[in-house]
Each structure stands twice: as structure tokens, then as C-alpha cells.
Design a protein that fits this description.
Mean pLDDT: 80
Number of strands: 0
Largest sheet: none
Oligomer: single chain
Structural class: mainly alpha
Order of helices and strands: HHHHHHHHHHHHHHHHHHHHHH
Helix content: over 70%
Radius of gyration: 30 Å
Length: about 525
């Protein structure tokens, strides 16, 4: 039994290392893939399959998908296609184990993989350490299967499944529940599948028992998404609900149609292998399970999405609704979400300033919106602080976003300054001219690709304002010493023009840093 527990632990360690390494290596490539190939239901489905096969984790694909929905790069309906594809892609683990795991001596090559991988992590240059993680992950994964094979051969003498032969509805239900519990405890459907396949291979369970365990494991795999969605964003909750409903409804359908499913599994297995192989048949059944669900749900994606959006309505802060802590371990996605949130905050502050210029006074609506932006900005700072950027370009993008939060915070301080009340009157012409600039900003602010032109526009405006501030400041003081105006009025006008100068400067610096982010993003996409 110790070998079984240890084998599962080593397998999970390998799976975690493998998934984390592949996510880091392929994270940005997956981002570009999803951007390019996710459109309709079929392309979304295939994107989900490819992503999950690449990172060997449907959970990782689900989290990536949540990030893209949060960032506005995917619609919720498109995300359903990706999640269904992820369920099909997750069956690749069973194929790897059944085709390789029981055909060769795993210990013979798993230990060298672990050794080389760990050694690479310790001495390789920073940019190559992740490859060591992936290699060691594969090694631990196969080593875990090797321990499981040994352990399951002995465990069949200690744990008997004979009482749960799949010959009655009650026993079938018990096996499904056991499958659910296995996945919930292991927190990985791939580990539960590995345990099931090794138990079948060693003779601890029979073929039909394995079938019902797999059905339960497909339901149990939704537990991770459910736990992750607790307290998370609406996007996470909706994605989790999609995962649960898809897997549960498909499982019910498969149980109701189990006889034709087993016949089809037998036929496909013989077609692939030339003869019937039980462990391979489990991998085939697992894939057919997910493909059947896809065939039913893909044509119904739009009504299915509408149903889930009704049962999980939007209730979050409109400015921070996309910030989801569960995606902070994926820098490429999290930084995009951070950028989009800051883009909305800058848009909100632009509207606030336009409101001030139009009303020429501080209104309740003005104060309320500033408070709302201030709270949202603090939440965005917290979110950005949780991101651990893994490569040079991501760190540069991350740094630019932190500078944006600083300039937006300073911009809020300027807007809270009581001098704004005098500035809109004493510098009325300047403020009206700036309002015209802000109208042009508003036309472009929702378009990421236009941010560089927006930054250039605000930079020119800031330079002109700096020149005007120097000229007018001198003029106001000269008029004071010639007694054309009193000192207090001159000082008030100087303070007012300094306020306007600070206002425009922080608008410019915020947009300039966001433009830098866009440039870095465009450079990466060109690679």
C-alpha cells in the first residue's frame, strides 16, 4: 500500500512539474494560438484540445480560458468550446500510459530523466531551467507509474473490489462515487486515471469496474474548478459551472447508453490495436466519453451559454470584474488582464475630467466616480503585485503597468486637490482646449493598437502645456509687480495653471507607459 500512495505522490509531483514547466514555455505561444485560432465553436473546440495536449492539464487550459474571457479576448460562448476541447485533450494522459507505460521498463529511463532534469535546473542558465523542470516532470510521472504498477500488484491482496462487481445499478453507482472520491482526493483526474489503469493492468479490478471508475473520475475532475471558483470572478464561476454541467450531463448520458458505448469501445480498440487490449480500451472509452459530450453540446453552445449566464449573473464591480487571482500564476494572461483593467480606469478618469470641465464644479457624481476609481486602482495594484513575471519581456511589461498605477494614483490626487474648483474658471480656455484633446482620446481609448498615437497626442499636449505654464507664470507675476492685478489673484492663477500642468502630465505619463506595454506586446507577437 505504501508503494501505491508513494506512486500517486510521485506521479502528482511529476504532473505538477510538467504542467508548470510547459505552461511557462508555451504560455505566450498558447496566448497567440488562442487569439488566432479561436473563433467559432469548432475552432474553439480544437484550440482546447491542442492546448490541453501541450500543457497536459485541463485545469491549466481552463485557467487560461478564464484569463482570456476576463481580458475580453474570448466571449463566454467561445470559452465553452475551449473547455469541451480541454476535456477531450485531457484523455491524452490515458493514451500515454496505456501505449507506453505498460509496454516498456519505466524505471530504466525515468530515473535518468529525473537526474538530468534536476541537474539542468541547478546549473543551466536561467532561460533553460524550465526545460529541466519539464524533463524531470516527465521522469517523475513515469517513475510514479512504475511504483503504482508494483504497489497495485500487492494491493489487490489487501483491497478487494469483488464486492462491487458492476452487475447491478447500486454497485455501478458505488464505483462512480469511488471514482469521484479518487479524483477529489488526488486533485488530478490524470493521477486517478493512472491509478485505475495500473489497477486494471495488475488485475486488482476488472474492465467494467474500471469503466465506471473513469465515469466517476470525469465528474470528480470538476471539483478542482469548483474549489478554484469560490470567491473568484464571475468568469471563473461561469467557466466552473460549464465544466460541471458538461461532465455531469455527459456522464448521465453515457451510463444510460453504456451497452452501445462498450460495443463501440471494443470495435475502436480492435481497429487501433489489432486485438482487444483492456488498458488501451479504457483510454479509448475515456476519449469517446468526451467526444460524445462534444457532439451533443457544441451545436448547443449559444443556448447553453445563455442558460449559464442566467444562473450566474453579473454582480461584480464594473471596473475590477476581470481581476481573477487564479490567473496570476500565468503572467502572459494576468498582465493582459491588468492592462485592460488600467485601460478602463484611464477611460473612467478621462470621463471624470470631462465631467468636471462641463459642470465647472465638483458634483456628487464626480466625487463618487473618483472614489470608485481609487478603490479599483488599489485592487489592481494588489492583483499586479501577485504576478510573478518569469521572463525579461514580461518583467518589462509588468514594470510599465506598475508605473501606470503610480501615475493614475497621482492623477487622482490632482483631481482631489481643491484647486480644481478655481482651475476650471481661472484657466477656462486651457481646460476647454484640453477637453477637445480628451474627446480625441475617448475615440481611441478602447483600441489597444491606437494607444501609441494617443500617447503621442498627450505628450505633445503636455509639452505645449509646460511651455504655456512657464510663459503664463512669468506673465502673472510681472502683472502683479506692475500692479495690474493684485498678488492674490496672480498667485491663484499660477496655482491654477500648475494644477492643469500636473493634470495633463500624469495623463501623458500614464498613456506613455501603456504605449510601452503595447510596443512590447507587438514585438513578442512578431516573433
Amino acid at each position: 500500500m505504501a508503494a501505491v500512495i508513494g506512486g500517486i505522490g510521485i506521479f502528482l509531483l511529476g504532473m505538477t512539474m510538467l504542467t508548470n514547466g510547459l505552461k511557462e514555455l508555451a504560455g505566450d505561444a498558447l496566448k497567440k494560438w488562442l487569439n488566432k485560432f479561436t473563433g467559432g465553436a469548432i475552432s474553439s473546440l480544437f484550440s482546447g484540445i491542442v492546448m490541453t495536449v501541450l500543457v497536459q492539464s485541463s485545469t491549466a487550459t481552463t485557467l487560461l480560458t478564464i484569463g482570456f474571457v476576463s481580458a475580453g479576448l474570448l466571449t463566454f460562448a467561445q470559452s465553452i468550446g475551449v473547455i469541451i476541447g480541454a476535456n477531450i485533450g485531457s484523455t491524452s494522459t490515458g493514451w500515454i500510459i496505456s501505449l507506453i507505460g505498460f509496454k516498456v521498463s519505466l524505471a530504466a529511463f525515468s530515473l535518468p530523466m529525473v537526474g538530468i532534469g534536476v541537474f539542468a535546473q541547478m546549473i543551466a542558465p536561467r532561460q533553460y531551467k524550465t526545460y529541466g523542470t519539464v524533463l524531470a516532470g516527465f521522469g517523475f510521472l513515469f517513475l510514479g507509474i512504475d511504483f503504482l504498477q508494483t504497489g497495485m500488484a500487492n494491493a489487490q491482496n489487501m483491497i478487494s473490489f469483488e464486492a462491487f462487481v458492476a452487475d447491478s445499478f447500486v454497485n455501478k453507482a458505488i464505483l462512480i462515487v469511488i471514482g469521484i472520491v479518487m479524483t477529489v482526493i488526488m486533485q488530478a483526474s490524470s493521477a486517478a486515471m493512472a491509478a485505475t489503469l495500473t489497477a486494471l493492468f495488475s488485475g486488482a479490478i476488472d474492465y467494467e469496474q474500471a469503466i465506471y471508475l473513469v465515469i466517476g473520475q470525469n465528474i470528480g475532475t470538476t471539483a478542482t474548478a469548483l474549489i478554484a471558483s469560490m470567491g473568484a470572478s464571475v468568469a471563473a464561476k461561469r467557466t466552473s459551472m460549464t465544466h460541471v454541467l458538461f461532465n455531469v450531463l455527459t456522464a448521465i448520458l453515457v451510463v444510460l447508453c453504456i451497452a452501445p458505448m462498450l460495443t463501440l469501445t471494443h470495435y475502436v480498440t480492435e481497429l487501433i490495436n489489432g486485438s482487444f487490449d483492456e488498458t488501451l480500451a479504457i483510454a479509448v472509452f475515456h476519449t469517446l466519453f468526451s467526444v460524445l459530450g462534444a457532439c451533443i453540446f457544441v451545436p448547443l453552445i449559444k443556448p447553453f451559454a445563455a442558460f449559464i449566464m442566467r444562473i450566474v449573473p453579473e454582480k461584480e464591480n464594473r471596473l475590477t470584474k476581470h481581476l481573477d487571482d487564479s490567473i496570476t500564476n500565468m503572467p502572459a494572461i494576468a498582465l493582459q488582464v491588468g492592462f485592460d483593467t488600467l485601460q478602463q480606469l484611464l477611460k473612467e478618469l478621462t470621463q471624470v475630467v470631462m465631467l468636471l470641465i462641463r459642470e465647472k464644479r465638483s458634483t456628487d457624481a464626480y466625487e463618487k466616480r473618483i472614489v470608485e476609481v481609487e478603490i479599483a486602482l488599489e485592487e489592481t495594484r494588489r492583483f499586479l503585485a501577485m504576478i510573478q513575471s518569469s521572463n525579461v519581456r514580461d518583467r518589462e511589461k509588468h514594470l510599465n503597468l506598475m508605473h501606470v498605477t503610480d501615475h493614475l494614483a497621482r492623477l487622482i490626487k490632482v483631481l482631489r486637490d481643491q484647486q480644481h474648483a478655481e482651475a476650471v474658471y481661472l484657466q477656462n480656455e486651457t481646460m476647454e482646449n484640453f477637453n477637445g484633446v480628451l474627446e480625441r482620446v475617448m475615440e481611441r481609448i478602447d483600441h489597444k493598437e491606437a494607444f501609441i498615437r494617443t500617447a503621442t497626442l498627450l505628450e505633445n499636449t503636455s509639452k505645449e502645456m509646460a511651455d504655456r505654464r512657464r510663459m503664463k507664470r512669468e506673465e502673472y507675476f510681472e502683472r502683479a509687480i506692475t500692479n495690474e492685478v493684485d498678488v492674490e489673484q496672480s498667485t491663484a492663477k499660477v496655482e491654477a495653471i500648475l494644477w492643469v500642468d500636473r493634470l495633463i502630465f500624469h495623463f501623458f505619463r500614464s498613456s506613455a507607459r501603456m504605449a510601452n506595454y503595447v510596443r512590447l506586446d507587438e514585438m513578442r507577437q512578431m516573433k
